[in-house]
Recover the amino acids of this structure.
């Protein structure tokens, strides 16, 4: 029996999924929730084999939710037509359903998911986030991070800076420091370049939180943020700051 969870914030889409899924003898619907926070909790508590996951949800969207899971289950994404989402799914060979959901398309997606589950194939959605950025005018506007059992969602304008920490990045926020498994290289490509500056190989800083830059010896500099964080500035980083801020 395949245990299925629905994470979808639109009731009509949830209702039609429930109606169609009732026709499958090998599927057990173990829950349906309407937001990403409840989705994370339900996946942890119920351990589903397959999740029908809406991409566009308020507060915490489908991709942000997946990023916070250590071992995600198999997922069939649900979305209204979005050319960048569809392109990303097809490039990564990931199943998706377009709203309104069609029974024939659902049947094909379930069959592929069934084969993956029966073969023990591990789910991997790590490349999706970057592919979902449609063009150079579209950037992240918030970042989700898990700390213990708690999930935080920070608007990017509230983040002071990011600093590298091996395979992780420290997110420095006025409420504290939070660790997220990602890279500065990835963040540099998906954050607005007129707001976040790569001032060193180990840091990205929000221009709105720059307090001052102090010289050190031998043409070296340190940047002080408004909360007192001290960040090293490389030669290229200093040139960038001079260009952007007119120093």
């Amino acid at each position: 029996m395949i245990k299925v969870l629905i994470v979808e914030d639109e009731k009509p889409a949830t209702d039609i999924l429930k109606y169609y899924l009732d026709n499958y003898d090998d599927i057990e619907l173990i829950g349906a929730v309407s937001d990403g926070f409840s989705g994370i909790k339900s996946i942890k508590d119920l351990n589903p084999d397959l999740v029908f996951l809406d991409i566009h949800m308020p507060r915490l969207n489908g991709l942000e939710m997946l990023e916070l899971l250590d071992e995600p289950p198999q997922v069939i994404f649900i979305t209204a037509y979005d050319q960048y989402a569809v392109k990303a799914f097809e490039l990564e060979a990931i199943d998706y359903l377009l709203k309104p959901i069609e029974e024939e398309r659902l049947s094909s997606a379930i069959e592929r998911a069934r084969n993956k589950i029966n073969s023990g194939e591990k789910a991997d959605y790590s490349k999706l986030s970057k592919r979902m950025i449609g063009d150079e005018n579209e950037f992240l506007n918030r970042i989700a991070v898990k700390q213990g059992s708690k999930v935080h969602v920070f608007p990017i304008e509230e983040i002071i800076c990011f600093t590298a920490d091996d395979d992780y990045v420290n997110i420095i926020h006025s409420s504290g420091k939070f660790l997220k498994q990602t890279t500065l290289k990835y963040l540099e490509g998906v954050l607005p370049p007129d707001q976040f500056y790569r001032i060193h190989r180990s840091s990205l800083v929000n221009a709105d939180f720059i307090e001052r830059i102090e010289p050190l010896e031998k043409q070296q500099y340190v940047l002080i943020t408004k909360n007192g964080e001290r960040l090293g500035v490389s030669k290229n980083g200093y040139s960038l700051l001079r260009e952007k801020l007119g120093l």
Observations:
- The chain has a mean pLDDT of 90.
- The chain has eight helices and 15 strands.
- Residues 147-245 form a domain with the OB fold (Dihydrolipoamide Acetyltransferase, E2P) fold (CATH 2.40.50.1020).
- Residues 160 and 174 are 7 Å apart (CA to CA).
